[in-house]
Amino acid sequence: MSSAEPRIVWINGALVPEDQARISPFDHGWLVGDAVFETLVIVRGMPFAARRHLERLAYSAEHLGVAVPDADVLQEAMVAVAAANQLEEGRLRVTVSSGTGPLGSNRGDSPPTATVAATPQAPWPDTTSVATVEWTINEHSPLAGLKTVSYGANVRALAAAKAAGAGEAIFANTRGLLCEGTGSNVFLAYQGQLITPSLASGCLAGITRQLVIDLTGAVEQDVPLSALAAADEAFLTSTTRDVQPVHAVDGQRLPAAPGPVTQAAAQAFAHLKATQIDP
Questions:
Q1: Which stretches of 75-155 are assigned E, i.e. beta strand?
Q2: Residue partners of 276: CB distance under 8 A and separation at least 6
């Protein structure tokens, strides 16, 4: 897909050029963030780990109270969008809102709005630095663990981290426990043990997070936010990052990036991605 060619998107069952896609200004996703989404990567022309992503989309939608199209419909839409944009590698975004509604929190009775879009994906740096932020994830929120479009806090936190010279912001939860990044899960290695915060911390159940746990035997364990800077190694996981080593926390360099634990996790995940399209 060249920059001169119009991007093709899928909206409510139809493939259309981006400039012909129309969403109402009364759509509740736009008005109040009443929508769920998934980000996937395109690998060899196909959405990677599509089954897991669509299951998580359905989970988020069920708990938010939003209806979503059948998984088969969305699977076909993702493949069609990747092909229409001639993307063998790239990034997919599936978004489903509750549809049009009043100018407030009450929902209307319209059908949902569903879209699928795709773009190329620039590679992430080989390593990154992170900054802890003062704001917290509320593990008791009705949105805890759901992948909704209500990302205002993440946008604000990431901007603060970048202003501090870091590539990602890291949140604690309301109890001061290590939780997650703005678009990533966090792993740390201490004395040879690989640890990631439990879902009870309020973090998102990341798809890459779970695959890395399965591959490495990482332990889900709640630890204080301060444990991150004291780790021997740390890395971030996400759909587009895969396994990304962390070389510094709040300006303090970690002993190794990547260290042997991180390298083993990255190699195992790379092998999985190269050999299975829907693990």
A1: 90-97, 113-119, 128-137
A2: none
Chain centroid to Cα 106, Å, comes to 27
Tokens representing 98 are 């509750």
**What burial class does residue 90 get, using C-beta atoms within 10 Å of its C-beta: 0-12 exposed, 13-18 middle, 19+ buried?**
buried
Tokens of 102: 């009043």
Over the stretch 196-246, which tens digit does the pLDDT of each residue have? 999 999 999 999 999 999 999 999 999 999 999 999 999 999 999 999 999
Task: Pull the structure tokens for residue 279.
Answer: 């693990």
Residue 5, pLDDT score: 79
Helix (H/G/I), strand (E/B), else coil: 122: coil
- 209 DSSP assignment: H
Cis before 258 (ω within 30): yes
Residue 136, pLDDT > 90, answer yes
List, in order, residues 6 or more apart from 19 with CB less than 8 Å away.
6
Which residues, 6 or more positions from 159, have their beta carbon under 8 angstroms from its beta carbon?
Answer: none
**pTM (2 decimals)?**
0.96
DSSP character string of 130-184: EEEEEEEE-TTSTTTT--BS--HHHHHHHHHHHHTT-SEEEEEETTSBEEEESS-
With beta carbons less than 8 A apart as the criterion, state whether 78 and 91 touch.
no
d(CA 161, CA 245): 17
pLDDT at 58: 98
- Residue 268 pLDDT: 98
* Cβ neighbours around 104 below 10 Å, total: 9
What letter does residue 27 receive in the DSSP assignment?
A: B
Residue listed under structure tokens 């001169």: 4
